[in-house]
Amino acid sequence: GSSDGIVSGSLVLTHGGFVVGLAGDPGLHTTIVTEVFAPGVSSEAQVSGTPVIIYGSGGGNARIEIPRGITVLIGETVFAPALGQRPIGIVGNISSSSASASQELYVRLPVNLASLSFVYVIPPRN
Predict the structure, then answer these.
(1) Which residue, among 38, 43, 81, has the nearest Cα to 56 in the 3D structure?
(2) Does residue 10 contact residue 124 with C-beta atoms inside 8 Å?
(3) Buried-exposed string 80-112: b where 16+ CB fall within 10 A, e elsewhere
């Protein structure tokens, strides 16, 4: 919470540097974190050098719809320009059909949210 120097908008990161979420208004000893991949939340992201919109599904999962002609590999990192070009997930699966002009990327955090024992919190840039 605020007694530890956390302020609203602070980035919450995993040990590997992936952004999990953003700190809300902190209490004295606790802070609610809004998950980057929360259900119904969409964000600008970048994968394979291509700007995209990523849609949160909750539980550290999200999806991206991207043109089929763009080559993306499973395991590729997804970055968020608005979060200092930090990583927010990795491509876990790709679904496409020859009848569709797009492919769907399923993105996940490389860690299980339920098993996180600690996180890093860094203040927002001014």
Answers:
(1) 38
(2) yes
(3) beebeebbbbbbeebeeeeeeeebebbbbbeee
The token pair that represents 25 in the structure block: 């208004």
Per-residue pLDDT reduced to its tens digit, 5-48: 778 888 999 989 999 998 888 777 778 888 999 999 999 999 99
Taking CA atoms, 93 is separated from 75, 78, 107, 109, 120, in Å, by: 8, 13, 7, 12, 27
Cβ contact 7:123 at 8 Å: yes
For residue 16 the two structure tokens come to 């590997």
Distance between CA atoms of residues 90 and 107, nearest Å: 5
pLDDT tens digits, 81-116:
999 999 999 999 999 888 888 999 999 999 988 888
What is the total residue count of the chain? 126
